[in-house]
Amino acid sequence: MRAVALVVVAFAALVPAMPAAHAVVNYVALGDSYSSGTGAAPYDLDSSCQRSTKAYPYLLATARGYALDFAACSGATTADLISNQLGSLNAATNLVTMTIGGNDVGFSSLIVQCTTLSCTGGVNDKITWVNANLAGLLANAYSRVRTAAPNATVIVLGYPRLLSGTCLSATGISSAEAAAANALADAIDAVTATEAARHGFAYVSAIAQFTNHGICASQPWLNGVSLAAITSSYHPNTTGYADGYTPLALAASTVTAPGTPQLDGASTSPNRGSFALTWAPATAPGQVAPITYTLQRQLTSGGSWVDVVSGLTTSAYTFTAASHEAQGSWRYRVIAYGGAGASVPSLPSPPVVVDRTAPTLHLSGNLTVEATGPMGAAVTFDATATDEVDGTDPVTCAPSSGSVFALGAAPVSC
User: Is 349 a catalytic residue?
Assistant: First the structure.
């Protein structure tokens, strides 16, 4: 019969699968009016900073169950962020989001001026200023954020292009002024992306998300100029925060799925008691703390997923004599946990058979058969085998059942 490899391991106790315990995500929302919720009144969280429950930080925290410290404030510059908002950060902060830099540029106030005066030259001057000065201001703010929150995932969100198409009669902004204003948004976007990456922060541009939803679009996500609520002008409306910024923040704070666990090609057979599983690592944008993994198994026949080991920081695990696997036919998966509290499982692996016992043979006893001729007699006999993992196994014997046996005693090997 087939060669049988014994797995020299002990049975591991099966414990019902439980979600791995993870600490509450301490989320701090920093930044300016695009983070506080300006443009989506009422400002029911803080009227002086125009913090709204319709702002993306509040919606993100509600969707994920994060503990939110809402520090963003309308009108904040990089200097204001450093002076007034960093006190919310500490070593226990897991997640930070921000929009910052627009007020250093004077972006919104400049666009408001465009509604009454020609501003193309002024906007072009601001583009020159952005390319010369914004990176240094952002670098100072980002460095201070990292020092105050050394373990946090930091996500920087950008500003959208404000105008979609031309609507001179509604805004007083000409097509040339609209093009210049959008070019200024692009300049801020490029500098911010570069500086965020240099500090190891995730950067999420809002330009593509808001395309076809600027002011003058058929479904605008931004408020036009309003003399009755001037601070809301050129800021996201309720839909802009809900459908524009919140999906960006949700996606950026999500850990990507790890690869399916596979037997390491260098591993010995799992039937010999030692084998390794590897998988493609997950990713989490802007994360400082390592992604951790929980390896789980499930019987191929079904049932609950059971934790094998938690807290792995590498995308591999080896079963050894000291960390043995139980007998059975298993599928494996890993759950990746990001520093921002998100988690995602891999797809299950192909079956891995761990078989530590030999099959049991079931043979006929010694047989005495009367010869039917001078050559002896054809003899049939029963030979079967059962295995704890494989069930019934085929058996090969020599000579095989039905062979002609010569006169005298003849051994049979199975």
Answer: no
Residue 390, classed as helix, strand or coil, is coil
Q: Active-site residue 33, yes or no?
A: yes
Could you give the dihedral angle defined by the CA atoms of residues 37, 43, 44 and 48, in that order, rounded to the nearest 10 degrees?
A: 110
The residue from 33, 232, 343, 346 that is catalytic is 33
Handedness of CA 405, 411, 412, 413 (dihedral sign): negative
- β-strands 95-98, 153-157: how paired? parallel
Backbone phi, then psi, for 146, in 5-degree steps? Answer: -65, -40
For the stretch 349-397, pLDDT in tens is 988 888 767 788 888 888 888 888 888 889 998 888 887 666 777 888 9
Residue whose C-alpha is closest to residue 178's, from 219, 215, 225: 215
pLDDT in tens, 288-313: 677 889 999 999 998 889 999 999 99
Reported as a single tens digit per residue, the pLDDT across 49-66 is: 999 999 999 999 999 889
pLDDT over threshold 60, residue 9: no
Please, is 32 exposed, middle or buried when counting C-beta atoms within 10 Å of its C-beta (0-12, 13-18, 19+)? Answer: buried
Helix (H) or strand (E) holding 304: none
Q: Out of 235, 274, 346, 349, which one is annotated catalytic?
A: 235
- Select from 85, 77, 81, 74 the least CA-distant residue to 52: 74
